[in-house]
Specification:
about 70 residues, alpha+beta, four-stranded mixed β-sheet, 1 helix, 6 strands
Length: about 70
C-alpha cells in the first residue's frame, strides 16, 4: 500500500520516520503488516502501531502466516 504514509517516532533511532504499511483495507480502516521472524523488529513495530492506533486505524499483524497479537511478543 504505497499511497499511505504515516510519520511516527522511532524510539530506537530517536527521530521521525515514515511507515508505509503493507496493506490498508479501507472498508475496515485496517492496516495489516506482514512480517517473518527474520524481518520482525518488535520495538520498531510497536512504535509504528502506537501511531496507527493514535490516528484511529485498526491494526493486524501477520507473522509467519498467522495472525498474532503484538502484545504477546
Amino acid at each position: 500500500m504505497e499511497n499511505l504514509r504515516i510519520v511516527y517516532w522511532d524510539s530506537q533511532m530517536h527521530h521521525r520516520r515514515v511507515a508505509i504499511p503493507d496493506f490498508y483495507i479501507e472498508g475496515k480502516n485496517l492496516i495489516v503488516e506482514i512480517k517473518s521472524n527474520y524481518t520482525l523488529d518488535i520495538q520498531n513495530l510497536k512504535d509504528k502501531v502506537k501511531e496507527y492506533l493514535k490516528l484511529g486505524y485498526n491494526f493486524k499483524l501477520m507473522l509467519e502466516r498467522e495472525e498474532v497479537d503484538l502484545n504477546s511478543l
